[in-house]
Amino acid sequence: MNPVIDKLAKILRLEVQRNFDNRAVLGGLQEMARHWQTEALASGLPEESVGAILAGLQGYADLAPGDRAPRLRAVWTRMVEEEKALAHLDPFPSLPDATEAETGPAPEPAGEELALDDGEAQDSAGEPPEEGTETVLPSEPTPREPAPGARRLELTSPLTAVQGIGPKSAKTLNKLGLETLGDLLWFLPRRYDDYSQLKPINRIWYGEEITLIGTVEECRVRPVRDGRMQLIEAVISDGTGAIRVTWFNQPWIANQLRPGRAIVLSGKVDQYLGKLTMSSPEWEPLERQQLHTNRIVPVYPLTAGVTAKWLRRVTDAVVGRLAPRIPDPLPESVRHSANLLPLSSALQQIHFPDSWDQLHNAQHRLAFDEMFMLQLGVLRQKREWSELTGTPMPVTDEWVSQFESALPYSLTNAQRACLGDIRKDLGSARPMNRLLQGDVGSGKTVIAAAAVGMCAAHSGQAALLAPTSILADQHYHTMCDLLPKAAGIEAHKIALLTGGTPEPARAEIRQGLASGSILLVVGTHALLEEPVVFARLGLAIIDEQHRFGVEQRAQIRAKGTSPNLLVMTATPIPRSLALTLYGDLDLSLLDEMPPGRSPVETRVLHPIERSRAYRFALSQLEAGRQAYIIYPLVEESEKVEAKAAVEEAERLQKEVFTAHHLCLLHGRMRVDEKDAVMEDFRARKCDVLVSTSVVEVGLDVPNATVMLVEGANRFGLAQLHQFRGRVGRGEAKSYCLLIPDSDEETENARLRALESSHDGFALAEMDLEQRGPGDFLGTRQSGFSNLRMARLTDIRLIEKARKEALRIFELDPNLSHPDHVLLAKAMETFWTSEKGEMS
Description:
By secondary structure, the chain is of the alpha/beta class. The protein contains 31 helices and 23 strands.
């Protein structure tokens, strides 16, 4: 038999077995025909016959399944005419009749059983079944139709519902977090190998990643390296040429590659003694559905005892059975407006894509779903908050004027605008839910003080929650300076509650809050961890809010009856990310620096210039200034080649700053130890503060003029910008010196950007694009643990999902319309594991 005709016959048989879905080969029959034509003509098949067969396959993809069967019959007839032996080997009546093809697959029975399409026990897998599994493989490919009487499969069915997965195999898969068929359906590939380039042997080139279809001419096993290894050698031909293929220590392959067998090979073309070869390629029989070759092949995370091919076959069995049944939660209006694939198609294409375009469409659909659900949750949170009733706290223009006139400086226009936003919020019957976003030194604290004053003017209490004792202490002293003069709140009505507060003072503060005599408490997590009760909490302020989790924010709100909420952050957050992270909050932006603050001069130095940086710091110390030196680690690590604070502090004191006092600050110190170090630095009892990133927030030392950051490449731009904001807070010119780990990192454009830009938002955009959203998320935000496909750097996706979410939300905020029943259920599932509030 002509091997080219035999190859086409096997492909057509597989197409029939698949009920004419045009997926017997990657790209469909039309795409396959282009490559087949080259081989057919090279094999000597008459041009007239080749043309007739190709004409029969032309336009196949556009036909309905009912019309595809007659078309294949015509092609089959022409093939039989060309190769009489074909009719004898596989007679025409074996094809389904027209009526069956037109009506499609028979309806599924009440029960079903899922079997792996594994072929022989040591067939195309390329390795024996995994040790410890009970895989019982049938001798022929098992059809995907369910067996009558078997139990119906659901997403919640255990993995053992798949014939061939026993308890031991299921236990092994549990290591990958897989327990149910639904888990496996959503177990997405981590990458893909492109084996879709099908070529005849006489057209291949060294170094290519290609797929060949050919026939085994010979196969043998021979010992190498004194018998310690076995080399399996096969010669594969396709009518245009032949190629030598080898595998090491897989003797079972020789039993499967019988001469005359048609196979598909995928891998890299190599070279040996001047001849092209392939070493250890993936391979499958031609008659089988191709999962490992001749296509874009998914690559999944693995664990010990699970091989790539076996997991791929298991996944294919589950995806083929369950994906078409998955109900699509997105209304047709959203799918049409956003130009999205149906969910069932997306799930099939994400696992076994027909093309790169289809894969990208599937990835986009699944990413859109996640972002859409997240945006709907944000909008729901905002609506729920807006429906609460609060106590109005209006203040007069005269009150605002008196507050401003009592300040030791004039407010910027941006501060006045933010003050107006907060005044409007507090004056309404709806609780405030606002994010105050401003760069380092932009003056957020005075706005917070004004909000506290407005609340106190109506006898309401306020709580200011800070992430560290250092920052809480600083806020306390600032409030004690501002509020008595600007808002008439006596200092004894302002309290500080941290982990280091003595017990007698704690009891007194708790009593004052319960009675209402304390109007403002500034504190850390101690405010949440203790039985603190407020008489009338009217305002909760959360500073550096990304340091707190959703449960902690919910806790502080729960201490009052719908209190007003002001969230503050000094981390510039790109607009695209703010839309997602804080879409439930109203936004006020401090984008103007107070007058008198000169930019901090920033320089990136080579590691060899470290001594030069030390000399410069010494000159500033001699002038009576102070300096920070930041390290990425607390102590040296064998795994990470980076300088560490503890060891370097000792070295610097002994070798560099011998005439000056150094102090050390890091996250492993007790709270009281940190407070003592910070107080010493503020009081100028120490000249150089050696610290880890704990210094990022909370320090206001106007006398400090040098910020030297070691291992600068290990920090994000947003974090480095925060470090830089610790200096330049006084009248003297200040400097930020960045020393990366290597010369290569010194030329990094990311670090160089800090030299020319002091725009925190521009730097944040760059950070988001290059490093992802981690620096902005801080403590995990509700909903974000469910993001597997969506990227918070994908601005277009965020805006697209938000647009669709807003449209749906405006029409049906409760998702009660019949078209939104599945969407409401999907929303519930998406948010089930995420309790608490969004921001």
